[in-house]
Every structure is written in C-alpha cells, then in structure tokens.
Amino acid sequence: MAYTDIDDPTEYFGTTLYTGNETVRAITFDGNSDLDVDWIWLKSRSSSGNHHVYDTVRGTQKHLRINLTNAEGTNGGTDGVTAFGSNGFTVGANTGSNQSGVTFVGWGWKAGTSFTNDASGTGIGTIDSTGSVNTDAGFAIISYTATGSAETIAHGLGTTPGLIITKRRNGADSWFVWNKTFSATQYLSMDTTNAVGSASTVFGTLPTSTVYSTGGGGGTGTNGGTYISYLFAEKQGYSKFGSYTGNGNADGTFVYTGFKPAFTLIKRTDSTTGGSWILFDNKRGANVINPVDVVLAASNNATESDWGTTYDCDYLSNGFKWRHDGSSGYVNVSGANYTFYAFAENPFVTSTGVPATAR
After folding, report:
1. What would the DSSP string read from start to end of 318-330?
2. Based on the domain organization, do 186 and 271 belong to the same domain?
3. Chain-centre distance for alpha carbon 66
4. Last residue of a domain, one of 186, 217, 232
5. DSSP track, 181-213
6. Which domain range does residue 84 map to?
7. For 271-323, how does the pLDDT look when each residue is reduced to its tens digit (9 = 90+)?
8. 55-to-33, 191, 202, 211 alpha-carbon distances in Å
9. How far apart are CA 183 and CA 179, in angstroms?
10. Within a domain: residue 136?
11. Which of 44, 62, 89, 138 has the fewest Cβ atoms nearer than 10 Å?
C-alpha cells in the first residue's frame, strides 16, 4: 500500500519566520530538504500590512497583494523579493517585506520545470501558456494572455488540478479561486469575505488533466488581460483540498487530510458571516504542541491574532480538529459549510512505514 507520494514535504513547501531589519538579506527555510522556492507569500505579523506574493514566472520584485484587487506592482531599487535561492529568497530594504523590528512570515512552494505550450502547435488548449511546473508536488504557475472569449489553457500537471487561483496582472480585479468541491461555474474571491458565487464567465468549464478554463469574462478572461494562475493537484500525504461542515461543539469537527498539517487555509463558503480566509501554520505561536491558535486572515491586512481558547485547532497526525464552537462563523458553526486547503509537515505514514505523530 502506498501511504504517501512524498516522504519529505519540506522539499516542496515550507514556512519561515524572520524579523525585519531594512537591509538586503537572505531568508532561508529550515526543513529537512533545501526548498528551491518558486512562489513566495509574505505577510507582516506584528504590524498591519498587505499580503505580498512573488514568483519566478513573473520575476523578482513584481508583487501582487492577495488581500487587494490591485494590478501587479514592481518594487524599485533593492525593494521586495530581489532573488529566489536554492533554499529561500532574498528580501530588500522595503517595509512591506523587511521593516525594521517587525516580525514576518513567509510561505514558499516549489515548482521549477520551465513550461511552454504553443496551443496551435500542440493542439493542447486554445491559447498559449508558459510557466513553471512540478509534477511530483502537483504545483504549476501558469501565465497567459486572455482574448475576451472562453478559452482552455494547458497547465502541464499531467493530472487534474484540485485548486486553481487566478489573478489579473495588468488591471485591477479579484483573486478568483476554484476547488474540486465546486461546480464548473462556482468560485470564491480571496480578497473578499464573500460566500461562493456562480458565473459561467469566470472558470467556464471543469479542468482536466491537460487544461483549465477561462469563461471569457472579467476576472479571468478580459481581452488583452495578462494573468497568473497557481494550480495545485492533490498528492497523497502532502496536499489536500476539500470541504467540511461545522458541528458547533467544543468537541469540534475533525477534518481528515492523510498527513500532519503544516499549513491550513480555511474559508466559510455559505455566508459572509465569519467569511474571512483564516490561515494557520505550524511555526507561528508559542505552543510547540497543540493547540494551534495564532491566526492571519488572507482577505485583510490585519496583524496576527492569538485566538487563545476561542477557536483552538489541533494539528493531528492525519488531519486537524477544532476544539471550540467557532460561534462567530470562522471555522466551526453548526451546519455551516467550509472549504480548506492544507499542506503537510509529515505524511501520516511514510513510504517506509514510519508513522507521524500529532503536533
């Protein structure tokens, strides 16, 4: 029996913490393997500030902000992420990524293999796409230019993605999110607290093992719009995307992932009440054992918050579990629907039979 596709998740995903000093410096990950990172998501913890993301496809110093609709910006001088390294990245002197005395968190994912698809030559998709793909980890960063019509776009993963995040670069628009629990027309917006919306003009049709779609409308398909997409395919023991229903109890809902989580992103989908995108990880906070209770919200620029005993979460060897009722709506309201996106610290059992333990 194959327990996992990936024995060491730190080869493909990592979290790093640092304190800013406003000088150019290298930031490294501390996993078991070097993390040759291709997508970096940065957020200040002790001070309010936007969520900045950088990737190797768009290039250094080109940032997008997950909590805003703004078009892509370019840092000047030595600001922003100035280099992608073999086990981390380099930040410049700007306050958004390295303000003196401010604590920061960085999450990183590895893609790494250059990808180019000429749709007219390969017959895969209807418009050209380029990017960086890692089929082992199930992660692709894809760039395309839209035509204003419904199109299909090659992604290179070789398997059907379970999560798609798309953002326009050359104009203001939301971050549109689709996951495998949605229909072809459903979507979420990462920069808002909105419940699930539905429009055939956003993602259009369901993705396949070779292509994903734009419906030809605003957000993913504006004529002449340049776009970046981050696509993930589930890998056993490493990544899991799904949904759950809250139970409203202090003995809260258990969500199976098949691994000990390192990162979880949670979103209520049926209401704007408690609709923020709630982000936990295994590095922030004083607890080296459970609970996990230090929160950032991807949909706003607020400082990190310690939820204390209000919404404690346990990271277990095979999933995560809420300890409290989450009455405000964020994580565990009785009968409420939630979507989750999780990446592993350790698989539940390695390919050689070594089991994981709870946090």
Report:
1. TEEEE-S--TTSS
2. no
3. 10
4. 232
5. TS-TTEEEETTS----EE-TTTS-S---SSEEE
6. 9-109
7. 999 899 999 999 998 777 888 989 999 999 999 998 776 778 999 999 999 98
8. 20, 19, 23, 21
9. 9
10. yes
11. 62
